[in-house]
Each structure stands twice: as C-alpha cells, then as structure tokens.
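Appendix B: a complete holo record

For completeness, this appendix reproduces one full record from the ligand-bound portion of the collection. The bound molecule is pyridoxal-5'-phosphate. The inputs are the chain sequence and the ligand SMILES; the output is the full three-dimensional arrangement of the complex, encoded as structure tokens. No fields have been trimmed.
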Amino acid sequence: MRFETLAVHAAAEADRLTGAVSSPIHLSTTFERAEDGSFPSGFAYIRNDNPNRRALESALAALEGGASAVAFASGMAATQAVFQALAPGDHVIIPADAYFGTSKLLHDHFVPWGLKVSVVDMRDLAAVRAALTPTTRLIWVETPSNPTISITDLRGVSSIAKEASVLMACDNTWATPFLQRPLSLGADLVVHSTTKYLSGHSDAMGGVVVIGQAGPLADKLRSIQASGGAVPSPFDCWLVLRGVRTLPWRMRAHCENALAVATFLAGRSSVERVHYPGLSGDPGHAIASGQMQAGGGMLSFVVPGGRAGAFSVANRLHVFTRATSLGGPESLIEHRTSVEGEKSRAPEGLLRVSVGLEHPDDLIADLDQALRA
Ligand SMILES: *Cc1c(COP(=O)(O)O)cnc(C)c1O
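The structure of the chain with pyridoxal-5'-phosphate bound, as generated:
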C-alpha cells in the first residue's frame, strides 16, 4: 500500500459495536474480566494498554515500517524511555545540534545516573567513528536538525553503528515518515514528538518510539511505558491519529510553501543566510536529496543587527505568529537564542520558521514588508 493509503487506513477499522467510522474515544480506565479471569478484549488497565493508544501505535509502526511502536505522553518522555532502556555506564553519542531538550535531559538527569555522553558534529562521519568507545551502546541522530536545519547522512551513520554493533536511534520529528524513513536507512529506533507534524494541529501532545525489530529492546521499552506510566491520554491518542490521516497532504504543502519562502529569502540582500535543505545551494542539499522526499517545512534565516534586528523583523510580521514549536497549520517564527538561553549555539540574528499551510504568496508578502521596513 502506498503511503497516502496507509495514512488513511492504518488501524482504521469501523467500530465493531456501533459501526462508527471515526473511532470512539475509550475513556475507561479499566476493563472487565471473563469468568475464567482472563481479559477477552485484550485490555486490562489504561496504563498498560487501551484501544486508542493501541490504534495509534499500530498506525505509527506501519507508517515508519517498524515492527511495533510505543506511545508516550510527550516527545521527551519517548526520548527518556530510550535512554532508560540503557544501563548506567553505557556510552551514547549525540549530535551537537540535538534538540535542546534532549541534550538537557541527558546532561541534567542521565549523566548523574551514569550514562556517558559524547557530543559530536554528526555531519562529520570521521568524528562519529572517533567518538566510539568499547562501552558505546547508542548513536542518537536528528536530521534535519535545529536550528540550522543541518542534515546528517543516515546511511553513513548507520554503517558506522552496524560495524561497531551499537544501536542507532533517529529523532524523525521534523522530517516525518512521509519524507524520511530512518528504519529503511539502517536505524534501529525512530523517535517522534507527535506534538508536531504527526498531530499537525498544535493541539495535542505526545511522543512515540518505533522499533525496527521485535526483541528484548522492544520488550524493555514496552515495560518502561507500562511501569513508568508516562503515557498519552486516549483523547490525545485519538487527536494524533486524526492528524496522521492527512499527514502526506499537509507535508506536501508545508514543503512547497517552505521552498517558496526559502527561495524568496535567499533572494533578499537584507537576509544574511538562509538554512533550508531544499535549496540547491544548501550544504545539506545533496544528502537530503538522497534520504528525504523534499526539504521539509522548517527553515531558519539570519538578519543583520543581531537580537534587535531579529526582534524587529519578527515583530513586524502579521501572518506569522511569534511562538515556539512547529508542525501546525499556522506559520510560526521564533528567535531561537531567546528560547535556548546562554548555551544556545544559534547566532543572535537567527529566526526559525515553521512554515504553515497558508497561501505562500501571503507569507512572502508579509516577510517582504517586514524586511523592507
Ligand atoms: C519538540 C521536539 C521534541 C520534544 O517533544 P515534546 O513533545 O515537546 O516533548 C523532541 N525532538 C524534536 C526534534 C522536537 O522538535
């Protein structure tokens, strides 16, 4: 089945009791036992499993081409579960431009717990190889990355991981399985913040780990989910799955709009730099073309005048909303160093944009007047 068909039909059987085509939201926290003490429905208690979560997990596993998926209450809870599946003393390699919350989680909580962490430029495969130690268990990859939208060669990192017999996980939040399927490029695990493009409407929080193959790691993640209880509510599962139904069509429009906006910005002399892998001059373009269907919906650009220059452009925009996050229908713009604080690696003049689903001409006209002033 092609991706669009799968997005619509994965885990979408009509409700057996009522015939409802849109699945009911099952709020029940507990499920009835049969006379012999078994659970004929397969469900026992909401933290362990429930129908909406199971449907979401099965759809996301199908879209990523994985054996199974484990849903969490947020992207960070999913990320945390992957590190919890390791053991104190294990070594992990992460990119210098990993999602800010990921490096913070590791340094604030998992380093004290006993994980060893090396931070590398993931674009530099020799640096990745050089960072391997005898205790390395996991290479964590995120591509495209934040906020300079840099591209990591997934096949390249995967061959290093395979050679060294270490796991490779890919945070695929920004690309989504419509644009990029890391399991097919050699990753063992895919992580998402479903809060972003998968739900797609800026109104639900969630995360997921998709596992390539059944085995002890899949079992461990399932056990962390049930025991730790950082699980999504049935309603949030329902909202994310509703978003998934239109994912390919939304992503097409996000990509088309982002390319139009990036092309416009690249042509403006008052813009110092544009980061967008869909532009042929971008340093990540060649690798992105080999592993992504299109450049994605995220871009960033640098204006002169540092923080003040960036603020004045952002404040003159009317169609773009000044807010963090990404993946919703509305275009968002954000001054990245304001979010990341002192440790930010972004230049002060950098603005990050989640290009939404408005008409591209309106987005470009808005940027045009903001940059002209
Ligand atoms: C938002 C985001 C996360 C964290 O997800 P939450 O749902 O906010 O916990 C992780 N990785 C990336 C790339 C993200 O954009």
